[in-house]
Amino acid sequence: MVSIRKKTLKSSLRTIWTFVSPNCSKLPRNRKSHKKEIYNLKHYVYIITNKRDGVLYIGLTKNLKRRIYQHKRKVHPNTFSSRYNLNKLVYFKEFKIEEQAKKKERQMKKWNRDWKIELIEKVNPDWRDFYDNL
């Protein structure tokens, strides 16, 4: 049996109707929110550096190509990546669920440096810049 639920968002006072079946979670029926979910299926955890065995930065983004472009062009000049000239994408992993990507980023930020370098060298032994292949 399928049930219909009505949800009113307090911030925008919009009403969203969702259809819920016992076999699956809530399915968005609002066209705009449905489109948004279709296009935001990918989330990336990435590592950038300035040179082999140099400073490492771990980040999370929905649009990897745009974000690395920002790092390379130093769009935000006062950030850690700009100060240390981190512009070389040496590792990235794609996730379909944002929470999984956030969890992985938090885990990786707690890793010691040797584990991060081992992960990079397993995927990218020459420390090539993956940006050109995106």
Question: What characteristics describe this protein?
Answer:
134 residues; alpha+beta; GIY-YIG endonuclease; 2 domains; 5 helices; 6 strands; 35% helix
In short:
By secondary structure, the protein is α+β, with helices and mostly antiparallel strands. It is built from 5 helices and 6 strands, in the order E-E-E-H-E-E-H-H-E-H-H. Strand 2 and strand 3 form a beta hairpin.
Could you describe the largest sheet, including whether it forms a barrel?
A: 3 strands, antiparallel
Approximate strand percentage: 25-35%
Instruction: Report the principal-axis shape.
Output: globular
Q: What is the mean predicted local confidence, pLDDT?
A: 82
Order of helices and strands: EEEHEEHHEHH
CATH class category name of the largest domain: Alpha Beta
* Continuous helix count: 5
Characterization of the model:
The chain is of the alpha+beta class. It folds into two domains: 37 residues, no CATH class; 91 residues, GIY-YIG endonuclease (3-Layer(aba) Sandwich), CATH 3.40.1440. The chain is 35% helix and 28% strand. It has five helices and six strands; from the N terminus they run βββαββααβαα. The strands form two sheets. It has a three-stranded antiparallel sheet with strand order 1-2-3. Strands 5-4-6 form a three-stranded antiparallel sheet, sandwiched between helices. It is globular. The termini are far apart. About 8% of the residues have low confidence.
